[in-house]
Amino acid sequence: MTETFDAGDVTLERVREHVWEIPKTGDMRVPARVLASKQLLEEIKQDKTLEQITNTTHLPGIKKYAICMPDGHQGYGFPVGGVAAIDAEDGCISPGAVGYDINCGVRMLRTNLTYEEIRGHEQQLVDALFDAIPTGLGGGAVVDNAPVEEILDRGVEWALEAGYGIESDLANCEDEGRRPDADPAAVSQKAKDRGRNQAGSLGSGNHFLEVQRVTDIFREDVAAEFGLERDQIVVLIHCGSRGLGHQVCTDYLREIEQTHQGLLERLPDKELAAAPAGSQLAEQYYGAMCAAINFAWVNRQLIMHETRQVFAEVFDRDWRDMEMELLYDVAHNIAKREEHDIDGEQREVFVHRKGATRAFPAGRPELPETYRGVGQPILLPGSMGAGSYVLRGGENSLSETFGSTAHGAGRLMSRTQAKNEFWGEDVQDDLREQDQIYVKAQSGATVAEEAPGVYKDVDEVVNVSDALGIGDKVARTYPVCNIKG
């Protein structure tokens, strides 16, 4: 007899350990799958995540199943932690299934410093980073009046030529830091104007820069290939395309809603508004989204450049002597043309990953030569008090999840609820006094919104990914200091 899980209006059937399915009924084109332990399912069922992943199965051209990752939670139309592969010829592309913060993503910077070497410098370091890197809502940038057109077109190649990076920064960035399908002309002037003075800024919300120490190594051979060892200091940078990406999403959602009302009327939620593949709007949105992806990569590159300068100043030595090299940069909130095996046939699909990370296994040609033999690095941040993980693309990821895994711990609590439950200054004091974690932010409210208790158990999320073989545990890191918007 099939084991089931009752989630109120929805009953999930157990396919195997950590794999639960909402069977195809009514107008669903495919089943929906949720990858989670029972503990995580209890949390996932608390909001509209299951309703949203079910709604996603109605999108034209969706293949195999809609997937919700173990960190899944309610989003705009499409759940955060959602993955959908949609046929690139007879399907569609959905801005809501990508999200407003296009190419929100994470990069990790390695160093040769040990935790002991930075003990006693934490306050100086967090203050210097906060002073150097613009945070919070609105403007502020590493590069004022940035050449937005060139950034949108060329991505990190522009940053390298402008003196904000080194060759290996390109090699160790997803897609080498540039989407060639980018079309700056498809990005509105309003979006460009919003981005012009935000190039090199963290923004607000859950975005952060965190200095971390490596506390655990789970796969010694892979960690060695990634250049990681115990007690090493690394830096994790999490942000996206700022106001530019938000405007791109807003612009195209409105246009698609007006132009493709017939398709919209067939969907259970207008927030899933989609443009048919091959249509003018689908092509324009894809070009604009790829341009915003390039902007986000440059944004993280510029923040990394500033981080290198701050470390050089605080520790009074050249950042190259500290071997401050990019380990990898991974994108989430993205739709990409990829080829995948669909029922024994190679098909080109738009893989929508919203709050999900690409997790390609060893051997994929898209991976940098450095990592092709071991699999793609995956950077999975936890909360300020729980630490983060480095994984590598697992052998089962292509067959199970179109080469994807979770992107973080996943929220348990809304921002409003968090501010009612936590007091930012108390959270900061507790982290510093109990855990020796130094946090600096624009406001106490920001800290309260991102308090450790606001998030799911990152260990549980990662254990599900590891058990399913979609993203394998390599190393764990723990916060030393953190700056936020």
UniProtKB/TrEMBL annotation:
Q: Where does GMP bind?
A: 206-210, 332-333, 381-384, 388, 407-410, 484
Active site, renumbered: 407 (gmp-histidine intermediate)
Question: Pfam families annotated for this entry?
Answer: RtcB
Q: Which positions bind Mn(2+) 1?
A: 101, 207
A molecular function (GO) term: metal ion binding
The keyword Nucleotide-binding belongs to this UniProt entry's keyword annotation: yes
How would you classify this enzyme at the top EC level? ligase
Q: Where does Mn(2+) 2 bind?
A: 238, 332
Q: What does this protein do?
A: Essential for tRNA splicing and maturation. Acts by directly joining spliced tRNA halves to mature-sized tRNAs. Joins RNA with 2',3'-cyclic-phosphate or 3'-phosphate ends to RNA with 5'-hydroxy ends.
Report quaternary structure and partners. Monomer.
| Name of the protein | tRNA-splicing ligase RtcB
Query: To which species is this protein native?
Result: Halovenus carboxidivorans
